[in-house]
Each structure stands twice: as structure tokens, then as C-alpha cells.
Amino acid sequence: MMIRWGIASTGKMAEGFVRDFAHVPDATITAVGSRRPESAGDFAARHGIATAHGSYRALVEDPDVDVIYVATPHPQHHAIARAAIEAGKAVLVEKAFTATLAGAEDLVGLARERGVFCMEAMWTRFQPIVEHARELIAAGEIGDVRMAQADLGAFRAYDAEDRLFAPHLGGGATLDLGVYVVSIAEHFLGRPDRVHTAGTLFPNGADASVSILLGYDNGRSASLLASLEGETPGRAVVAGTKGSIELVPRFHHPDTLILRRNGQPAETIVRAPVGRGYCHEAIEVNRCLSLGLTESPVMPLQDTLDVQWTMEQVLGQLGITHTEDPTPI
Known about the structure:
- Helices cover 33% and strands 25% of the residues.
- By secondary structure, it is of the alpha/beta class.
């Protein structure tokens, strides 16, 4: 079965995703949509895409599209994905999934009600080495998981007009980089019982750096850091009663892990992704659709809701409230 994809956005994330699509079997990109017709036309011409739509509404209504990949700024995800689900289109929605927990709950509720496939594009979870880490932990190689640590920091020169820093576009460290550290911790520990946050703000009120402590009633914990103010190694460690697994920097798209078993020499394991690594999430979408699934067992919607809940706790403690973009598509 050939699955037909549409791309909602012509930005950096869409570029990376489309370049990797050559590694996705039994699928083709048939259309791209943008709010600016000239942007859609240019993107389509550069990537050999047959149809360019000058609005997201036209893309959603295209009968030759089965799945829509949503890669716009965070606050625009909700409206586009909602319209796609209402039209019966499967959706792969970039992280952060939405700008708000309420927006995420609305999309998840609608997708489940309509029986339409929906998944967050958390590409980290589909990297081969992360899959191997799951297998090692499930096999008891590090014992009972007790804690996680993760950091992801990058220096970006402050520009209040840039999407990364614009509050109305979901800018700030939490939604752009914090989503990775929260997601990797909750992947192995689950949703926390408590969230404690400290952080700094840019002059326009967007979050610049955040330190996050996740606490669990059974004593487990996670210590997390995300920043747009400075480079950090980008390491993630999951520790248990028999050892630990380190996802070697940068952990959000790794190809190497170090397995440390108590009292034994460390073991380095390599599992390279195909291409840049974006293709693995698209392959999972196609696999699920071919099996008639409406959620991925690797990236279930409850996990997305749990991460959104945690990020909303983080932002709230910093005095930040995001909103979904109300602009009609």
C-alpha cells in the first residue's frame, strides 16, 4: 500500500523531514501547504512535490493526501492537526505537540473519538540506539530504574523577532529543547508526581534556561536542564540498581550508548540511524497505518499528554502562559 503524505510547513523542520523521506518505503509526498503560495511553490519545486497549496486548509482537503506532517511553529499545530483529523487524515505532529496541555487534550480526544491515527513526532524515541536502550532496560540489564539525568543546551543570540524567542510563537527553552529532556526522562520513569522548576527569562518574558526536578512518590527522580543561553553536552543517563545507560551526546538523535553494569567494564554499543534519523518516525506511522492502528505503541498519545502536563507545570512555575494560535487555517 502506497501511503501519500502532505507537508504542512516549508521551514527548517520540514526541510529535514523531506530530505530523509527517500528512506521511507511504500510512501510518497504528494503535496505541501503553506500560508504563502510562493513559499509552497518554491518548496515543491525544490523537492519534486507535485502539488503546492497556498493554504493549510487546501492541504487538509486534498483527496490525494493520507497523512499530514505538521511542522509549523508550536501554537499553529493545534488548528492544523484538528482540521486534518476532522477530515479523516492521519497526523504526525512535531514536538512540542501543542502550545498548551488543553490543546493536546483536545487533539487526543478528537483523534480517539474519530478513530484517526495521531502521533507526536518525537524522533528521539525511534532512533535505533534508543530502541536498543529500551530492550536492555526491559531485559533487566541495569536493574530497577531509579533516576534519570538529561541536559540539552544551545546558544542562540537573543532576537525578540525570531520564532525561538517569540512568546506568541511558543518560543523559549521549554517547548523547543525542554520537550526533549522531559520526554526522555518520562519515557523511562513515567509521569512524575511533582515538578519543581527554576529558570531565567529573556527580556520579552520567554524562558531562557530551565532546571527541572521531577519527583515520584516511590523515591525515583529526574534532574533535567534545557537552555537557549549556552551550549551543554547534551547527555542523557538512566540509572538503576544494577548499573546505568548513557545516551552519548547529543542524546536527542544519538547513535551510541554506554552500558555500565555494576563492577564490570563499560560497554559501548553503536546503532546508527538511517539517513539523518527523521525517517524512522515516518516508517512507524506507515507501519501503524498498515496494521490499522490509531496510536503508536512506541509513542502513545498518553505519553504525549504526560509530557505536555509536565511542561505546563514548568512554564506555570516560571509565570509563563502559552496560547494556541486562533488564526483560521
